[in-house]
Amino acid sequence: MENLLNKTIPQIQEMIAGGKLSYFELMGEIENNVKEKEDDIKAYLTLDLKKAKLKAKKLDGVGTSLLNGIPMSVKDTFVTSGVKTTVASKMLADFVPEYDAVSYKRLIDSGALLVGKTNMDEFAHGFTTEYSAFQVTRNPWNLNNVPGGSSGGAAASIASRTALIALASENFGSIVQPAALCGVVGIKPTYGRASRYGIIAMASSLECPGIMARCVEDAAIGLEAIVGVDPLDATTLNVAKERFYDQLNLDVKGKKIAVIKPIMQAVSAEIVLAIEEMIRVYKKMGVEVREIDWYDLDIDSKIYDILYRSEVASNLARYDGIRYGYRTEKETKTLDELYQQNRDMFGKHVKRQIVTAPITIDKDNPRDSIYYQALKIRRKNRDYIDKLFLEYDAIVTPATTFGELAIGKTADEKWREENRNLARINGTAMCPTVLYGYPSISFPIGFLKPTAPVGVHVFSKRLNEQGILNLAYAYQEATGLKCLTPKT
Amino acid sequence: MKLTPIIGLEVHIELSTHNKMFCNCLADHFGTEPNTQICPVCLGMPGTLPVPNKQALINTIKIAKALNCKINNEFIFARKHYFYPDLPKGYQITQFQDPVGSDGWIEIGGKKIRINRVHIEEDTGKLLHEKDESLVDFNRAGVPLVEIVSEPDFHKTEEVIAYLKEVRLIVRNLAVAEARMERGQMRLEPNISLTSNVSKLPDYKVEVKNINSFRFVKGAIKYEIKRQTKILAKGKTPKQETRGYDSNDGKTFFQRSKETTTEYRYFPEPDIPPVVFEKDEIEKIVRAMPETRTDKIKRFVNDYQIKEESVRKIVEDKKKADYFEAVWKEIVDKGNKDKKYGQQIANFIINKKHLIGLPPKEFAGKIVESMKTKRVDENILQIILGEVLEDHQGLVGEYKQGKHEVLNFLIGKAMSMSKGKLNAIVIKEGLIKRLN
Ligand SMILES: [Zn+2]
């Protein structure tokens, strides 16, 4: 049934409606893939196939939702009641929550079936999924390579077809970059359009739920399910629901997109070539493409760093082992000792973030603090980009600053030195969507080599999810770069 | 060297809202089974988010307004970090910059006490210490707590107690809190220092934490004054520190010094966007508020033309004030519009307490009667008084030398001369006027 998993969700639902396939068979296909590939790839921290199969068996006929009976993976940063949620940290190695992340709940309520919880960097801090406290996930296209991160398990689960839809979270490229490295589509909505309730992260306020899938149609379907105002998240927006899938539109003629020139000048020639090819395709469809300059390339990364790092130590303060999480077996004499023992379970990268947390607020002169300075510049930059969106429908950057990355490479001091500038450039490309809340999509635009897909990152003004979905959809349909299958 | 106590107060009051501050758990935790009013949010479970309780904010606006504060229209929440087992998230959500209210004041016995700020925050859980273990009850965690911070404007314990009683009266009058001390719904933290120069604040202060009765706050202040006086007498400066109060021996005891005070690392709560109240929204809240005492005094003075001194005596007791207004209404309903009635009703309420039991209508009748007599018989009164004073010039002389008890004799004379047409009060007032 190789072909089955090359079909989009609507096509699969059609087969089921036509009696050619059952949800149970679909889940069986997923199970086969898990058996065949998961030992190598290790996308999942927890698998729940037994329950998924049981539920699939009970589903008769087609539900009203396109997500009915669809196998889904969920990044282990989302709490799932009754299913272990570790956020890839030993701190929560045995944590089984009794409540649900809202985005997860919405997908479940739409009929999706949980296959398992996917691997990630511990507390979503990292970009290779190598910082997981439990396992290293491999890239399905090349088992020697990383899948990207922090949503590396999610991207790998889609690329290896052990799930048809993945719930993941975006923050500084956490969806964009692994989606590109694994040759899948990843989308995150406008900040506030989907609930953050139940996402565990180092900087929860900067984290945004998103969807990964094999094609734009599926991504649109998943996104539709998770957006909507949520009384449990005070930052959600009260915006009417949209039918992202029904409104997918191939006609992008006359749309204007901007490519950030200084970024293009900094990334490798092979990535530039891929993007130039993409531009040719778009121009053929009647899309106007222009190169634009950018403000200070470092400034957004710096603002991001201040906001992110202010929040990290604060968000992680609750892990004291008193109410849940790791609790030392040892006798402790004082409260401080108890805290020390319990909190020792954080991984070293997490600890490093906690102990180096800067004091960003001067308590005597709060208004002059670096934190408020950052907020001020943030407003200025946001206005700058908002203005660009009066003219352009979308802004384009590479989805990754490197083509592929071997496992273990980031530990190499030399590599880090060489890539310092690229990391900076990556910040320029990835920060605006986090800091200013723009919706963004990452989709495959070609291959650097047969085992290394390459993607692009497109973002637009707030609440224009449909616009970027359509751009990606038109490109996908024009090139046939859809449901890409690793040859391994 | 004369030392003057400089005292400031931090008062914490639990709001009696239905729900907790950031989740939907019930807020009324008194007498509940431990850990029965909890949820993932108030337990600080991973990934949960706080959503501010609007009613609690409205109630805080009311308190701030009643304390004559400036109301900010944008409230920002902040995280205050420290580790303690009763603090689920490792930080308390409170307010740092842009509190609900700031720069207020209330008047205590003619003295203005400045209020620095009024802000809203969440309460912590409670530790229960058993033989070999400590347990935590989180029913209280997340209950809305209003903090009222005064400037160090008190010099006497009596002022402190009067202030606390007034604050308690205000929140009860607003029906936003029960403020029952024995239930821990009102907690007090005085900060105390002594100075020989009142115009300059001392460069230290001693905070006494978590006191839950007026009597104990009195005891703590008294003890601190004694303790600090001794230190200062030796030419030393008391250390800036936080102390506790032991109600068993009436002494304060050292808890922690300034040096070991936690750096709270305040920073704006990123999970809650600033809460904006539009101006008209705040006005609507204020309009729906019961009248504050200050406003009531002002209104009584202006609308009823009563001396402020009399108004204070009436307004201190809501029953008296309500009775006043009921009587006034009766009189106005009868078509009597003379502004002088106000003072007369006030005088009657203050001086003839036994009459307050009467239905307002009857009481009003007596007032109208007394005023009528006064006006109709003004001429007769002056004639009679003239005659009485003429007849008893000796007594008049005695009165003028300070022998005021002769007044009653003169009143009696005038009364019998008027054959009951004039009442004693009218005669007394008339006599005093003429004698002075
Ligand atoms: Zn709760």
What is the number of E strands of chain A?
11
CATH superfamily of the domain at 4-252 and 437-479 in chain A: Amidase signature (AS) domain
The assigned CATH architecture of the domain at 4-252 and 437-479 in chain A is Alpha-Beta Complex
Extended strand count of chain B: 16
Which molecules other than protein and nucleic acid are bound?
Answer: zinc ion
User: Could you give the distance between the termini of chain B?
Assistant: 45 Å
Helix content of chain B: 25-40%
Listing every helix as H and every strand as E from the N terminus to the C terminus, the arrangement of chain B reads EHEEEEEEEEEHEEHEEEEHHHHHHHHHH
Please report the number of helical segments of chain A: 16
Overall mean pLDDT of chain A stands at 94
Shape of chain A: globular
Give the topology string of chain A: H per helix, E per strand: HHEHEHEHEHEEHEHHEHHHHEHHEEH
Explain what the structure shows:
The complex is a heterodimer of chains A (488) and B (436). Chain A contains 16 helices and 11 strands. Chain A is an alpha/beta fold and 488 residues long. Chain A has an 11-stranded mixed β-sheet with strand order 1-3-2-4-6-5-10-11-9-7-8, sandwiched between helices. In chain A, helix 10 crosses helix 13 and helix 10 (299-315) crosses helix 15. The longest helix of chain A is centred in the C-terminal third of the chain and has 22 residues, at 370-391. Chain A is globular, with a radius of gyration of 22 Å. Chain B has 3 domains: 4-287, no CATH class; 293-370, no CATH class; 378-435, Arc Repressor Mutant, subunit A. Chain B is elongated. The two termini of chain B are 45 Å apart. In chain B, helix 3 links the parallel strand 12 and strand 13 (241-246). Chain B is of the alpha+beta class and 436 residues long. In chain B, the strands form 4 sheets. Chain B has a 9-stranded mixed β-sheet. At the A-B interface, helix 10 of A face strand 15 of B. The structure holds zinc ion. Zinc ion is lined by residues 20, 23, 25, 38-39, 41-42, 142 of chain B. The site of zinc ion (ZN) has 8 residues of chain B, from loops.
